Automatic annotation (TrEMBL), chains A, B, C, D:
Chemical reaction(s) catalysed: (6R)-10-formyltetrahydrofolate + H2O = (6S)-5,6,7,8-tetrahydrofolate + formate + H(+)
GO BP, sorted A to Z: 'de novo' IMP biosynthetic process; one-carbon metabolic process
GO molecular function, one term: formyltetrahydrofolate deformylase activity
Entry EC no(s): 3.5.1.10
Keywords annotated in UniProt: Hydrolase, One-carbon metabolism, Purine biosynthesis
Active site: 230
Pfam family of the protein (one): Formyl_trans_N
Root EC class: hydrolase
Protein known as: Formyltetrahydrofolate deformylase
Superkingdom of this protein's organism: Bacteria
């Protein structure tokens, strides 16, 4: 899988496709996006491994000059879809996204290596381990608790995540605001599920905000974590219909279905190198 | 059709159903909503006209004591669905909602009497008249134009609407901010279509705002007009999926489909007495 | 919770609401459906337990004469929502619906007592037991296997289910055609998830059928099991969009998301007494 | 705009992109589809006209040898999006799709040249003409009418359509079964809207069939007309939710919204050369 972003110009598609063709590469999937506003060009190409006489590392080496030529020096990747990516899940009290992802990993639907589950409630250990995952309990203080306890908990979390160096750090309803330096360290790898259709209802209790406003649809948003709360690049969103008979707690219950789906889709696309970030927006080649 | 809102209490359903039953009324449709948070009760009942030996006016007279007993003195209505409601449409340059509604009126799908179309561009006259509607041209000054011209235009608009005393005043992409005193005069009858999924992207150019934020769904909202811009009680909302390849103008084009539908549905429900307003929220008995 | 179906006539709502009101019952939710084609009437009423000086059994006893009067002798139920209903899950190789439901039970989202999981593959035992469920392995022969082995497996299954006498028997992608006598025994309790938008693509490999036809949406259907394959009363359906790039195996993968949701919703409504069967159709009071 | 289908092989993307690049063509949009089952390759490329020193005819001439080389001899097109395509609309009594399309043409949303409206009811003349379209009345006999009248009507219809030689012949709820020889003559240009989610409910009264089966969603399908009734390649489909309270006539009314949208979308994609037919399936590059 090759992904790439560069300034758009005449012949860029030909140069990329030409380079792959010369190596004998059979392009099984190819997606292109040319952004008229920014003048930027993005592509994702899936080359059949069997059509190349060498592996991903050699493809990467051979493609480097082409990338340089078209000015994509930094923003390109070559990965082998046979390499299972690793994931760390961060969870809190709400467990529906955790259960959903564990089920998807167990049934082989999301082809990842689950490196660890880190929760701030010890009770999730047995289920995590039943699915073959390492479990770590990191105790975060309650809201309003001592600052230093919180700092210590984040330091512990940071070290645990660093140990695994995962391809994705999933905040599966983690309910903690990640400090800026951790946002920076995890940039492009930390994925959050927010339980509203952003940019509506940022912050706490979004379903209660939605209920108070009397909206007729509620939603969920999967986005990369940045230091700006609930404002990072959006990967995926979806909504479901509610009506006057849905109380705020009922919205909480019904919203879980859409949170599960939106997070699972967003995570899959991230793991399959389908998401290219550009400024605060994403190109998602589905 | 009977609609009603009152404080909830034991036996209120029995009293209403009992009163209708004693008159011999056959309840063809009945919807109830009991709001646990506010302790308020709402209902909409459709009684078959043929099952009653009298008309809507007499039903209203006989039901009045029941309404008083259950404390619904003010908030109840009895209407005859055979009486066609009247509608005034306000339009500007964007005509897709106008065309859509005219088509629905012409084909008999929305059973209303179209009293008038009022536009601030004279060019729409022929189409409006081809569908049998009166057309009035009211010239609003461009944004930033002289205040007194705007005031004069609103005075003219107000008088024209007042002449028809319509059941619904539809701002079919009217693009003018209605002054507070007119909002008050039209309260509960003026329906706007806003081209975003409110409360996101209030005000001007919502599709451009949506594009800049990188959302993955765009929407439209049909709501009652109040003096607070785009903040009135929501009647209906819906969304469609967009992706990175949709530019802002493309979103404008694609959004029209959802604006048409959301406005047509919201207007229908309003005309069929399916919408009960309670504070800044609506009960919609679909 | 009271549910009821009877011939429609003047005053039936008043009689039911009157009877509940006289007992002092506070109606928290009430839904009615009057079917103009069949002349049949359906209702579901939720009475607050705290408003009654007695329990469900006494309510049932007191309501019986009313039910007789309005001709609902057989078709009515009174249940106590505090009584957790019991569920037996039947599974085969495809485990996504099993994992999804176990997650929902574990997190308390679907308030049921999971009586047992019965699978024709022993491998699911550990997961089922990790969620606190009894697991039984019943070995069904492969397709085309000896008739008597199949009969024996069904006899075993029947006995296991009978032991638990569950309120719902969920075929969570069970992949066996239930024999007519078992359909009869389980009538109104056995719920299947079929992986197509019925009535399209009945029987085997529906996603492959869908792919061959080139449809642009794929779906799933939750229905009661009857002796007619995939033809029982439909409880819930939903769809997701596919396109030309989705191969049949890709549709299989993507369809799982909609199967999970549709089964979970249908099962919830069944357990909350929201589904009333009439002929081969359902009234679903959501 | 270049569209093309050929056998897939190594280097095909490079050859196409290379040829365009050599001419100096700036690829503004590019979509590819490689079908693993049939081993077939499809592409649609939008080249900015301003980047080429010549027009579509010359591009076509220069591209011909490339098309031959990659074996796409027959199945490729080069068109100029500045050339407005022409459309003929066939209508009958149900006019919602007609009104919808006329509104879209009038507001410039669908950039076509409306060549003619042909209806079997004279009453639609004024509206068609108000939108600047030629109107022809062709009187089809009622169902069961004399065969020769029907043949004569079809002969007249065929001649009228042939006069305009349109890019699209839209059966906007035309309600006549097109004879095989006309299906052949109009192949790839005749687009029908069927009021069900095909392949469910082929033929007459699909909403009544849907109601009888008790489905929870109803749909519409836009497809190319072939001699097999409602079985041609599907371009677009969509659905909306219904429930037990929707009678068959109510489904008819509600279904119109989805018919309008599905036909408008399918027609747009056809006119923008986004639909490539392969066997009985379509590749739709949206």
């Amino acid at each position: 899988m090759l992904t790439l972003g560069c300034r758009d110009e005449v012949g860029v598609v030909a140069r990329i496709a030409g380079a792959i063709g010369e190596m004998g590469g059979w392009i099984a999937e190819a997606a292109y996006h040319s952004d008229p506003e920014t003048g930027w060009f993005f592509t994702r190409q899936v080359v059949r491994a069997s059509s190349l006489p060498f592996g991903a590392a050699e493809l990467r080496r051979r493609f480097a000059p082409v990338a340089r030529q078209i000015g994509a020096d930094a923003g390109w990747t070559v990965t082998d879809s046979a390499d299972r990516k690793s994931v760390v899940l961060l969870v809190s009290r709400e467990t529906h996204c955790l259960h959903d992802l564990l089920g998807r990993f167990s049934s082989g639907e999301l082809p990842v290596r689950l490196a660890a589950v880190i929760g701030n409630h010890a009770s999730l250990g047995p289920v995590a381990r039943a699915h073959g995952a390492e479990f770590h309990h990191v105790a975060f203080p309650a809201a309003g608790g001592p600052r230093q306890d919180k700092d210590r908990a984040f330091a512990e979390l940071r070290a645990l995540v660093a140990d695994h160096d995962p391809d994705a750090i999933v905040l599966a309803r983690f309910m903690q605001i990640i400090p800026p330096e951790l946002c920076a360290e995890w940039e492009g790898r930390a994925i959050n599920i927010h339980h509203s259709f952003l940019p509506s209802f940022i912050g706490a209790l979004p379903y209660h905000q939605a209920h108070a406003r009397g909206v007729k649809l509620i939603g969920a948003t999967c986005h990369y974590v940045t230091e700006h709360l609930d404002a990072g690049p959006i990967i995926e969103q979806d909504v479901i219909r509610v009506d006057h008979s849905d109380t705020a707690p009922e919205m909480v219950r019904r919203g879980r279905d859409i949170e599960r789906l939106v997070l699972a889709r967003g995570l899959r696309w991230h793991l399959e190198d389908r998401v290219l970030v550009h400024g605060n927006r994403t190109v998602v080649f589905r």
